[in-house]
Amino acid sequence: MRRLGKFIGLALIASLVAAPSAFAKREKFGADKRHQEVQKELRTIKPSTETFRWKMVMPWSKGLLFYDMAQHFADSVKLASGGRLDIKLFSAGELVGAMESFDAVSKGSADIGHDWPGYWMGKNQNFNSFASVPFGLDYEGYNIWLYERGGLEQMQELYAQYNLYALPGGNGGQEMGLFSNKKATTMADFKGMRVRTPGWFMDILNNLGASVTPLPGGEVYLALERGVIDAAEFSSPAINYPMGFDEITKYVIEPGVHQPSVQCGLFINMDSWNKLPADLQWIVKMAAKETQLWSNAWQENLNIEAIKLFKESVEFVKMDDEAITEFAKVTKAYLDEVKAKYPDVKKTLDSQEQFKRDFAEWREIRSGITPWPIDDFIDGKRMQ
Hints:
The protein is 47% helix and 13% strand. The protein has 384 residues and is an alpha/beta fold. It has two domains: 52-172 and 261-301, Bacterial extracellular solute-binding protein, family 7 (D-Maltodextrin-Binding Protein, domain 2, 3-Layer(aba) Sandwich), CATH 3.40.190.170; 178-258 and 311-341, Periplasmic binding protein-like II (D-Maltodextrin-Binding Protein, domain 2, 3-Layer(aba) Sandwich). The longest helix is centred in the C-terminal third of the chain and has 33 residues, at 278-310.
């Protein structure tokens, strides 16, 4: 009897593994689109023996965690290629100035760069769309939109105009709000406030009555200390902590509506890219995606300790709901103006907004089980 039960159990397992379609009522739902592309590649691709030495430039100093994202990518490429593609990093100022890195790679003075795309908004406003959009995509949203909703193709179309091949290159998650000596929680509190922020949020804050300047990161501490500005944002908790803003401010005004996530990119000189054999191109693409995954997990884990340290010296305050709503209204009006002026921005932002609409129903249905500590959840804490 025991043997019969064991036999029946094994037979049931075998039937489930061997013939899942036997009791499926519908066709398989979805497929990996890359699979067919890989099958074609495998018929022609051959492991290469040629070696390549690339120079990478960036807007970052070695003290910023963005630099570590770039290093992680370069290490992954070197490991996966067995050293056949070796990328040497040059921090800001070592080979070219921080804001000269884009042009250096575009012209071929360097092979590859790492960036926050919004730095290049002076060349094309649409670069902001692939960096951080106020009230825009979070880390999950960027990943789905980039890899599954045509966002990567749009990113590559934009960079290609400048002789560059682009890939996502790391996401640091949601950024902190404003470090400030003013406890601003209502819309009236922001009127006349002197703030440091770049990108579209700079114009949005100006439209709300603030006075904004896009100071470089290295100048923010001194400007806060001397009272040249009243408040400033820069990045995530882990990236902000070494910058010491909490030493000279009393509050952090949350949430960071300006950057629901900070998306970085890799941009490669098109000639350098085209010279790579197909197997190395695949390694670069996969290393970039691995960096995208790793960077967010790494940053968010570091943020845990950074927030503990910040709370020893600053008070975190939340804008009231009316202020956040007003920020959203002004943001929408501003972005509508930008879209009306720049068709490529309209194409990209409309694509992102359509994704948010399409995803909204599932987001709503799945809501209510945010993974708070179990005791907090039992006590009624549900939403993030």
